Q: What sequence folds into this?
């Protein structure tokens, strides 16, 4: 008894479903990784376990609020500028109410764009002091505020590029031809979101339009450029029309999809912009003191 092949519409729906699942996994992974996402963990004190979420990114227009559920003991916020080996500053934390819950909070002073502070929280006093996080200080980076009119289209275009790109790769993997229309949609969204809107986001956040190759070592910019270049190469190989032998076209699309997946497995904001405080101390403009690749 033979099994009927799935209809084209069912096959298409299945591939789109897989693409959505893969994109959702990508979104969750990006939200949970990277040096600017909150650091989550737990710490146990006698008779009580405290779950915390420590901030690692803040805008330059305000102090960074460091808070955790009230552990029932005093807290001290210990911080200094990063990566300078300065004397640690110590300030008592205060009890505050937020959303009807008691919290122990402290505030880190705002810094120029790309300025970083490292900090820890000490709970209790004397020999019973518990340090959070126990593995070492948290590094927090400040960024300039980015208009939602620029940020939302940038993020939307990049996620659409991922979704359509994954669907393009699945079509090439399970089909007999390279999905040309989807390939060009992917490349167009990537161009608009990454190479056009991306620099405006970077400019608002850190004062420079582009800090990747050939002017810098910003990993996010370089990842975007690499991913875009691979898809451009795939488009050149695939061409505008189907060919008698589609093997090379399908392989080019699969290679571009794989490169995109690898890029998104690298946590966001790694080796990004960082303020060189030594240049600021000598009277230099903070914009000119931003370096990359650290």
A:
């Amino acid at each position: 008894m033979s099994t009927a092949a799935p209809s084209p519409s069912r096959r298409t729906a299945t591939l789109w479903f897989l693409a959505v699942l893969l994109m959702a996994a990508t979104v969750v992974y990006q939200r949970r990784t990277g040096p600017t996402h909150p650091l989550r963990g737990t710490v146990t004190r006698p008779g009580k376990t405290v779950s915390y979420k420590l901030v690692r990114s803040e805008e330059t227009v305000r102090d960074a609020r460091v808070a955790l559920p009230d552990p029932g003991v005093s807290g001290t916020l210990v911080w200094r500028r990063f990566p300078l080996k300065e004397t640690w500053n110590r300030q008592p934390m205060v009890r505050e109410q937020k959303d009807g819950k008691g919290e122990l909070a402290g505030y880190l002073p705002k810094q120029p764009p790309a300025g970083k502070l490292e900090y820890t929280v000490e709970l209790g006093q004397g020999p019973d002091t518990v340090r959070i996080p126990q593995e070492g200080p948290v590094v927090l980076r400040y960024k300039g505020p980015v208009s939602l009119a620029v940020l939302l289209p940038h993020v939307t275009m990049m996620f659409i590029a991922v979704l359509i790109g994954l669907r393009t790769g699945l079509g090439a993997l399970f089909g007999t031809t390279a999905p040309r229309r989807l390939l060009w949609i992917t490349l167009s969204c990537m161009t608009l979101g990454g190479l056009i809107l991306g620099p405006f986001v970077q400019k608002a956040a850190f004062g420079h339009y582009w800090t990747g190759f050939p002017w810098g070592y910003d990993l996010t910019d370089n990842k975007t450029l690499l991913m875009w270049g691979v898809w451009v190469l795939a488009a050149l190989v695939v061409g505008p029309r189907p060919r008698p032998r589609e093997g090379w076209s399908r392989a080019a699309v699969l290679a571009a999809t794989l490169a995109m997946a690898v890029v998104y497995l690298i946590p966001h904001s790694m080796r990004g912009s960082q303020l060189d405080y030594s240049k600021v101390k000598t009277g230099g403009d903070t914009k000119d003191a931003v370096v990359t690749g650290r």
Q: What stands out?
A: The first strand starts at residue 39 and ends at 45. Residues 148-174 form the longest helix (27 residues). The domain at 46-143 is CATH 2.60.40.10 (Immunoglobulin-like).
